[in-house]
Amino acid sequence: MDFATIIQILDSTVRLATPLLLACLAGLYSERSGVFDIGLEGKMLIAAFASAAAAAATGSVWLGLLAGIFASLMLAGLHGLASITFRGNQLISGVAINFLASGLTVLLGQKWFGLGGRTPSLEGAARFEPITLPFAGSIAPVPVLGPIYSELISGHSILVYVAIALVPASAWLLYRTRFGLRLRAVGENPAAVDTAGVSVTGIRYAAVAITGILCGLAGAYLSTALAAGFGREMTAGKGFIALAALIFAKWRPWYALAACMLFGLLEAVSIRYQSIDLGFVMIPVQFTQALPYILTVVILAGFIGKAVPPRAGGEPYVKER
Amino acid sequence: MGGADISGRQSSAAPFAIELRGISKAFGPVQANKDISIQVAKGSIHGIIGENGAGKSTLMSILYGFYKADAGEIVIDGKVTPIPDSQSAIRAGIGMVFQHFKLVQNFTVLENVILGAEEGGILARSLARARKVLADLAREYELDVDPDALIEDLSVGHQQRVEILKALYRQADILILDEPTGVLTPAEADHLFRILKGLRDQGKTIILITHKLREIMETTDTVSVMRRGTMVATVRTAETSPEELAELMVGRKVLLQVEKAPATPGKTVLEVENLRVRDTQGVERLKGINLTIRAGEILGIAGVAGNGQSELLEVLGGIARGIGTIRLNGRELDLTGRHSDGQSRRADGIAHVPEDRQVLGLIMDFTAWENVAFGYHHAPEYQKSALLMDNDAIRADCEKKMATFDVRPPIPTLAAKNFSGGNQQKIVVAREIERNPDLLLVGQPTRGVDIGAIEFIHKQIVALRDAGKAVLLVSVELDEIMSLADRIAVMFDGRIMGERLPDQTNERELGLLMAGVSGEAA
Amino acid sequence: MGRMPKWADAVLVPLLSLIIAFVISGLVILAIGEDPVEALKIMVTGALGSTYGWGYTLYYATNFIFTGLAVAIAFHAGLFNIGGEGQATLGGLGVAVACLMLPWPHWSLALLASVVLSAAFGAAWAAAPAWLQAKRGSHIVITTIMFNFIAAALLNYLLVNVMRPRGQMDPASARFPAETNLPDLHQMLGWFGIPFAKGTPANVSLFVALIACVAVWAIIWRTRLGYEIRSFGKSEKAAIYAGISPVRITMYAMLISGALSGLMAVNTVQGEANRLLLNSVEGAGFIGIAVALMGRSHPVGVFFAALLFGFLYQGGAELALWTKIPRELITVIQALVILFTGALDDMVRVPLKRLFLASGRGGQ
User: Residue A101's closest chain C neighbor by CA?
Assistant: First the structure.
C-alpha cells in the first residue's frame, strides 16, 4: 500500500465519517438528556430527502439545508411529544419514526419527481461543493505534508468542517456552560434538576431539538454533498452505526469523533477492498462491515470498559411522591 | 390542636418564619393531610414526628411545591406565599434536604451546588463563586466537603452535607430535612445535629421530619406530632417526654383484644444467629440479629419502621441475601446460593405475608385466582400434567379460600387491584396460611385494612399458632404486637434492643426501646 | 363504577389508535393527490376480492404471525425484542441447512427438519442478547439491533463465499430439491376439492403459524413458564418474592421469541423462494412490533393484526400496480400504527379513561 493510497483511504474516511459524526453528536444531545433515540436513521433519511428535494426545486443548496433541518426537526418534535409529553416508550417511538421517514420519503418523492423515490440529480449551486483551502495548490508539491494538506485536509464540503468544529463546540457546550450542566444533569437525575427549580421538560425538548438540527445536517450532507441527490433508503443503516458509535464513545464528544473516524475507516476500507489478506487469515469484507456492531456489543457487555448510559435514559420523568 | 401558639425562642409578636394554615390534601380516597396547621418561629428547630404514612412527607412536598394542597395556605415571614412549584419554594427561601438525595452522582460537589442556581451562561464564573461561598460555609458551619469530589465517591454523610450546602448556597432561610438520619451512622448523625444547631444559632429556621424520638428530644425546640394525616399536638420539646411523644404518635386506639389461650411452645423451629444484611448501597441494615421461635409461639417484632424489620423478613423469605446462620427445624438454610430464593424457602416450609402486599405479595393486574397460586405455582395440586397448570383447580381452590376467608366480592376472575385493601390482604393471608407452613412470616398484616378484616386476620394467625406452628410477626402497630405476640422483641437500628413478655411490659417501656433507649443491653 | 372496562382497554384503545392511524394515512393519500376511498377499494379488491389476492394476503400474514408472536412473548416478560430481523435471518439459514443437508423423501419430513432448525437458529441468535441482558445488564434493545446488522453481514458472507453454487452470480444458496417444496394453498385445498387460485405463495406454513398461535397462547396462559413470564413482566420485585429467577425467565422468554422469529423463514425461504436469498426477511421482523402492539400481545390479537398487515401488504402492492401510490404507503401506515398504538398510547387511553370516569359519575 503506497502513500497515495493511504491518503485516498483517509480522505474517503473523512467523507464517510462526517454523516456518522453529525448523527452521533445529534444522538449525544438527546441521550445525554435522558431521551433514547433509535430514530436517528429516520431523521437523517427525511432530512436527506427534504434537502435534496428543496435544493432541486430552488437550485439553492442552502435552502435545501434549511428544508432538511426543518423536516428532521418535525420528526424530533414528534419524538419529544411521544417520549416527553405523553411519556410513551422512547424506543417504540424511535422505531415508528424510522418507518415514517422510510415511507414518506418515497411517497413524497414519487409524487413530486416521479423518479421511483429518487430526486433529480443536483448540480452547481444545488450541491455543496468542495472547498479548496488557502495555499492548497502551492503546498501540494511538498512531499508528505503537501498531499496531506491539499488532498486530505483541503477539498471537503463545508459540512465536513462544520461537523469537525462541532466536536469541540459540543464539548464546550456540554461541559463549560449552564445549558450543558443542566442537560447532563437531566439525563442523570431529573429529580435533581426539578428540585433545583429547573424545568425537566424544557431541557429535554431543547436537547431533542438540537438532535433534530444535527440530524438535519447529517441528512443534508448525505444527499447534497456526499451524493448528488436523494435515493431511497440512502441512509442504509448509517443512523444505527452512529448510534453504535455513540455507545462506543460512551456518550462523549471527543470519543465520538474517534469512534466515527474508526467506523468511517472501516467503511472506506470495505468499499475499497473486498477482503484483506493478513497473510495467515483472510478477513472478508462482511466482517469489516459488521465490526462496528460487534465492537459495540463487546463494549455494551462490559468486557472492555463498560459503557454506562446516562442513568435516567429511556425513562419518562414522573415526579415522585 | 395543631395551631397552638408555641413560639420557641422568640416572642410571639414577631411573625413566624413559616406558618401553615389548614392544609389539606387527598390522593383519591386517601386523606394524606387533614387540616394541618403549624407555626414555626424564626431561628428555631421544629420537629415533625409521626409514623410512616402519617402524612409528614406529603406535607413537606406541599411546602416545596411538588403538590398543590386542596385547601389551606402557606405564610412565610407573615406574608401569604403560594408555592406552586419548586422554583417558588426556592425563591421563598425554602431549602429541602430529601430523604433520597437529589444529587447527580457523576457530578462534582461544586457542579451539584450550582445546578439551577448558576450565574450566567458560562460555568467558570459560577464555579469560582461557589468555591468561595462553599469555603465560607465550611468554616462557618463545620460543613467541609471537597468541592471537586464526585458525589459517587462521597460517603452518605458527606452527600447529605452537599444537599445542605445546596440549600444554603441558594440562601435558604428555612431548611427542611426529611428523615435525615435514616442513612447515617450515629457519628454522622451527631455531626449533622451540631451543624443544624449552628445554623439555628445563625438565625436559620429548621424543620426536622423524623420518626426517631431521640433525635427530636436532643435537637428540637418545638415538636409537632402527626398521626394518620392529622396534626395531633404541638408542644415545646423541653416540656414533653419521649413517652408522651410515643403515645401521641401511636395513638390510643380501641384495643382489639384477640381471644387466645396461653401459648404452649414446643420445640425450636427457627434459630437466627448473628444475621447481617447490607442493602444495595452497602449500608448495613441488620447488624447481627439473634432470635429463636418455637412451635406454637408468636414472636412479635416491634419497632419504628426502617430499623431492619423489612430486611429480616426479606432474608427469611428468600428475597434478600445475608450472612450469618439461620436454622429451620435444626437444618441450616442457604443464605447466598442457589437455594436462597423464595421457591426454596417455600419448599422448606416458610410462608411469607409480605409487608407491602401491592408491591411484593400480589401482582395487581393478575386475577384473584392467579394470585392465589403466586409463589406456589409449582404445587402439585395446581398441575394438570408435566407442562400444563390446572387453572380450573386453582380457580376452585381460590373459590374455596375466598369462602373460608370471607373475601368480598368472592369473584376469582376479578383483578387484584379491584379488591379493597382488606380483601387483598385476605387473599394473601389465605394463600400463605392455608399452606400450613412450619414458620409464617407476617409483615404489617393489617396495614390499610378495615377493622373487620383486622379481627379476622388476627384470628387466623392465632389459629395457626394453636396448630403448633411458629409465627414471626413484624408490625409497627404496638397494639397489634401487644395483643397478638407471645413474646416481643424490639428492633432498633438493625439490632434487637431487648425482649419482653406482653403481660410484663407496657407501651411506655416498649416505646423507649423502640427509640433506642435501652434498659439492659446497649 | 366509572372504571375503564377491560374490553375497552383491550379492544377500544387499539381500535381508536388504528382509526387515527388510518385517518392520517387517508390524509397522506389526499396530500399526494389521490383518492383515499378509491385506494381502499383497490386494496380490498386486490387483497381480499379473489382467492388469488387471499393467497398473497395469507402469505404475508403468515410472516407477521410469527414475528408478531415473537415480539409479543418478549413483551409479556417486559422485554423489547427488536431483533426479529436478525433472528429470522438466522432462521433462514436453518431452513437452508435443513433442506440442503439430507435428501428428504417427502416435504413433510423436510418441513419438520426446517421447523426444528429454523427455530433453533433463531433462538441461538436471541440467546446472546438475552444472556447479556440477564447477566451483564446490557440493554437488550441495543444489542438486538446490533445483532440484526451482524446477522445481515454473516448471511452475506455465507451466501457469497460459502453457500453460493459454483458459476452462479447472485448471492443465493443452491435451489432446494423439489422434494422439499412445500404444498401451497391451491394444492392443499385441492385435496379437499376446494378451489383456490394457483401460483400464490401461501403455503402449509400458514398452518404452522396457526399452531404457533395456539402454542404461544398455551405457553403464556396455561404453563408454569408462562405464568412466571407474565409475573416477571408485570413486576420484577414480586417475581423475586415468589422465587422466580429473573435470569431464567429472561433467557427462556427470549429463546422462545427468537425461535418464533426464526420460524418465519420456513414460510419465505422454503415455502416461497425455495432457496436462501440475501433479504428474505424484508422487514417482517419490524412489522412484528406493530403487530404485537396492535394485537395487545395476545395470540388472537396478533392473528388479526397480522391479517390486517397481510391485507395492507398485498393491498399496497395492488395500489402500486394500479395507481400512482407507491407501496411505501404501507410503511407509513405501519409507522403510524406503531406510533399510535405504541408510543402515543396514553394520548388515546387517558382521555378515554376520563370519559369512562365521567360517564360513570353521571350514571351514579
Answer: C332
Q: A20 — phi, psi (to 5°)?
A: -60, -45
For helices C224-234 and C205-222, give the axis angle rounded to 10 degrees. Answer: 70
Closest-CA residue of B relative to A175 is B123
Give how far B377 is from chain C: nearest CA, Å.
7
Total count of domains within chain B: 3
Q: How many CB pairs below 8 Å do chains A and C form together?
A: 153
C-alpha closest to that of C265 among C91, C70, C65: C91
The answer to whether the CB of A94 falls within 8 A of the CB of A37 is yes
Is the residue at B406 inside a domain? no
Q: Are residues A300 and C336, on separate chains, in Cβ contact within 8 Å?
A: no
Cβ-Cβ contacts under 8 Å, C324 against chain A = 110-111
Q: Give the pLDDT confidence of A69-78 residue by residue, as tens digits.
A: 999 999 999 9
Q: Which of A176, A192, A197 sits opposite B122 (nearest CB)?
A: A176
* Residue B191 burial (CB count, 10 A): 17
Q: What is the ipTM of this complex?
A: 0.90
Whether chain C has a CB inside 8 Å of the CB on B354: the answer is yes
Cell of B175: 431548611
Name residues whose C-beta falls within 8 Å of residue C360's C-beta, 6 or more positions apart in sequence. C1, C2, C3
Please tell me which residue, A211 or B58, carries the higher pLDDT value.
Answer: A211
Q: Residue B296 sits in which domain range?
A: 268-359+435-514
Domains by residue range for chain A, with CATH? 3-301 (1.10.3470)
Note if the pTM is more than 0.90: no
Mean pLDDT across chain A, nearest whole number? 91
- Please indicate, yes or no, whether residues B3 and B85 belong to a single structural domain of this protein: yes
Which chain C residues are closer than 8 Å to A296 by Cβ? 142, 146
Mean pLDDT score of chain B: 88
The predicted-structure confidence for A228-287, as pLDDT tens digits, reads as follows 999 989 998 899 999 989 988 999 999 999 999 999 999 998 888 877 777 788 888 899
Please determine, for residue B201, whether its predicted confidence score (pLDDT) is greater than 50: yes
User: What single-letter DSSP state applies at residue C133?
Assistant: I
B11 pLDDT tier (thresholds 50, 70, 90): very low
Q: Which of B122-131, C2-11, C189-198 has the weakest average pLDDT?
A: C2-11
C-alpha closest to that of B139 among B198, B208, B203: B198
The residue of chain C nearest to residue B319, with distances taken between CA atoms, is C241
Q: Which domain holds residue C182?
A: 57-214+235-283
State whether A108 and C339 contact (CB < 8 Å): no
